[in-house]
């Protein structure tokens, strides 16, 4: 009998397409987020939509809503962990620990793409960063050509390193991936548009692609035409679109991004901006009315439920403990 092994839901293999016919003696190994993301890229033509998440709660909400992938924003990580602006202040440790926590809330759930900024140093630091992201369970990362004291890609006054230095970062990342036999998806990002123009961006991305980068990211498109052109100029190489509403470029919806031919669409500020608005409105109300005004039904239990309360109680009971037999 021919045996077909396909990827089933929850990242588990299915044999002959039917999870119920699995041989119970077969040792099933769930696949990593990296392999899952790579397969989504290589074996489908879907647009992989990744809401930007920056902490455990925002990631839990994305998981609850069933997104097929997530994006850990560096800007959001810097804002939430350091309380600082996206100006190159978050270091490898801040980024890796945040990514590791988020990627492991559901290790066989949606793959996590994480921001790796500049790689945090020279080739040795890039190698260390890539190794740590792999070990953290990150499925894909983007690495860029801004100078080390970088800034958000949607601010003015960006500076990039020369092409050779950028390619050194890509080479260091790629050889680490190869050395560790990892499926992690390498996304080459360029921020050269402001300083050097569109043609230089395409040249940098083509060179990164030729060194083995899996996906390209041209940061800060100034028009929809330019975004569409980039997809065409680099086809069939997959491109990622970073959609920052009220950022440097036009608003492009997921429907338009798909039609243009992008393969991954991250929304860096998808959680951070609403969190700011929601928290600010609530705290203003506390100041003026003496109460936060949380809507009925939104108590601790409801919020903890988003954060895996039932699952935790089940794990505890299965271990034979009775801490939650009477509920919480
Ligand atoms: C994608 C990005 O690197 C991020 O940290 O989310 C930022 C987003 C932002 O600050 O607007 C970037 O585009 O540089």
TrEMBL record:
Keywords: Pyruvate. The keyword Coiled coil does not apply. It catalyses: (2S,3R)-3-hydroxybutane-1,2,3-tricarboxylate = pyruvate + succinate. Pfam families: PEP_mutase. InterPro entries: ICL/PEPM (IPR039556), Isocitrate_lyase_ph_CS (IPR018523), Pyrv/PenolPyrv_kinase-like_dom (IPR015813), Pyrv_kinase-like_dom_sf (IPR040442). GO terms for molecular function: methylisocitrate lyase activity. The keyword Transmembrane helix does not apply. Signal peptide: none annotated. SUPFAM superfamilies: Phosphoenolpyruvate/pyruvate domain (SSF51621). It comes from the Eukaryota. Gene3D superfamilies: Phosphoenolpyruvate-binding domains (3.20.20.60). Belongs to the isocitrate lyase/PEP mutase superfamily. PANTHER family: PHOSPHOENOLPYRUVATE CARBOXYLASE, PHOSPHOENOLPYRUVATE CARBOXYLASE FAMILY PROTEIN. This is Carboxyphosphonoenolpyruvate phosphonomutase, putative. It comes from Talaromyces stipitatus (strain ATCC 10500 / CBS 375.48 / QM 6759 / NRRL 1006). The lineage of its organism: Eukaryota, Fungi, Dikarya, Ascomycota, Pezizomycotina.
